[in-house]
Amino acid sequence: MAAKPYHHPLDRLIIGVDKALRVIAGVASASRPTPAQHAPDAALDQAEQRHSAGLMRVNHVGEVCAQALYNSQARYAGSDAMRAQFAQAGIEEEDHLAWTAQRLAELGSRPSLLNPLWYAGAYALGSVAARLGDARSLGFVVETERQVELHLASHLDKLPAQDAKSRAIVEQMRLDEIEHGAAALALGARAAPAPVQALMAAMGKVMTRTAYYI
Description:
mainly alpha
């Protein structure tokens, strides 16, 4: 059996910082083509374009936070299975990051100016969750994905009906988030306490309302 690669704590720190800088700078590569590639490009008036951009900026911030959460939880995970799960989910979340960034550019807009703050806050939350043990950490993932899935479903209602490109991206993201939550459950997630769920929902509302504009 091949020996597992050993990474010195300083190496892991450097890798983590490099990942953070890439995410914050908007450097992301997708492993899958954007779901929008075959969707028709419809004309949007100024108000519709601005609204779609605001919603996609919120979704992009969600993916910045997802990268931070998975990076921190993988760093402090207690098992190889956990680390592998977070790594795989992180790859799919990076797809989302790249897709939403591309769509923002197509809509003539930009990512949130507060991305460094969003990343730092999510990384701190993920670190705390991971320190509570694998089962609690997975429970945090399940609740996060549940709330994100609901949030994405609401965006399908809010996006302009003719904006098929944005809608295709959001729908694929929604399906991926459901899978991530199911995978965490299968690994033995322990439900997050009700106060934690309420706090996460409140923080999510602050983030979505702010990121829509800034």
